[in-house]
Amino acid sequence: MDIGKTLGILILSLGCFSAVGQKYETTRNTSFMETVDADARIFVWHHFLSDDECDYIRQKAEKRLERSGVVDTGNGGSQISDIRTSDGMFFARAEDEVIEAIEKRLSDWTLTPVHAGEGLQVLRYRKDQKYDAHWDYFFDKVNSVNGGNRYATVLMYLAAADDGGETVFPKVPAPNGINADFSDCAKYSLAVKPKKGDAILFHSMNATGELEERSMHGACPVLKGEKWSMTKWIHGSHYYMGGDKYDLQNQEYTRLLNVFKAGGNHANGTFSALCNVQSYSSRKCRSGRILSGTQHDVDSESSERVLQASKITLVA
Ligand SMILES: *[C@@H]1O[C@H](CO)[C@@H](O)[C@H](O)[C@H]1NC(C)=O
Ligand SMILES: *[C@@H]1O[C@H](CO)[C@@H](O)[C@H](O)[C@H]1NC(C)=O
Ligand SMILES: *[C@@H]1O[C@H](CO)[C@@H](O)[C@H](O)[C@H]1NC(C)=O
């Protein structure tokens, strides 16, 4: 990974929450974003999470860990497989203030609404545990019913392994031919070494809404120590989770959107009501447009193209 390709510097962010009765620092080390592969749209945000956030999430997740499954392409359920040997668990969306703040940060970074994301999944990889290379994108209908197909993934490291455990992208060669001090599994492909607090963003769909083959990725076996990671899978549109607050928000958004499309206008307040319902939509509301269909923000040229490719229409 070439640290020279730095995109920009994000300033130390300050804040604090009190979660479960305990004062809680979200102050992060100076963070910066690195473009790992601009064309495949793979980025690393160094120090995305504070050490406190990592430790807090890990402790909270530990009691709920179970052997990880892989998604069953027949019925959308989970099944145990040798290709994935970690232990894991899921949080509810906005399960507590810390999780909610992280989800908001993820939403801002990826320009996708919180409600397009699944609940955060935490994984623990012990020695020799791994996840063979795969796509997060689905090739079957059953799994893309809820929220459409997966659009992007953010993979966060809560704890680095002492050795091994790299995230590897086997469809992309190592930038300089070889990653000298990486484990064998990660030597010849684009790979990221786990570092506590760092996050990788990659896209399962390319800018025209088709499978981005280079998003194929795997978790190399941990050789020493323990690796903890956390994943946010983001779909193309609203991902329903049993009626949580984001589901209700989306319901209200859809209702207002229908009012709006049926002839509502800015003057009678429909427009601002829509903007208020969607907390992530400030940029969109400033630009004076509302999306129907999937509701991704339209700040970047590429998400604009994804929307066009997915036959999403802009109204207003
Ligand atoms: C900043 O990084 C140092 C060294 O890695 C670490 O000890 C410290 O806990 C970090 N601080 C925060 C707020 O994450
Ligand atoms: C997306 O992927 C498809 C299939 O590989 C390809 O035909 C298309 O050109 C790609 N779009 C972009 C913008 O790279
Ligand atoms: C706005 O106006 C439209 C059309 O006149 C109406 O159907 C809708 O109910 C109004 N919306 C609100 C929020 O008052």
Automatic annotation (TrEMBL):
One of its GO terms (molecular function) is procollagen-proline 4-dioxygenase activity. Keywords: Dioxygenase, Glycoprotein, Iron, Membrane, Metal-binding, Oxidoreductase, Signal, Signal-anchor, Transmembrane, Transmembrane helix. This is procollagen-proline 4-dioxygenase. Residues 1-21 form the signal peptide. Its main location: endoplasmic reticulum. Gene3D superfamilies: q2cbj1_9rhob like domain. Residues 112-236 form the Fe2OG dioxygenase domain. Its EC number is 1.14.11.2.
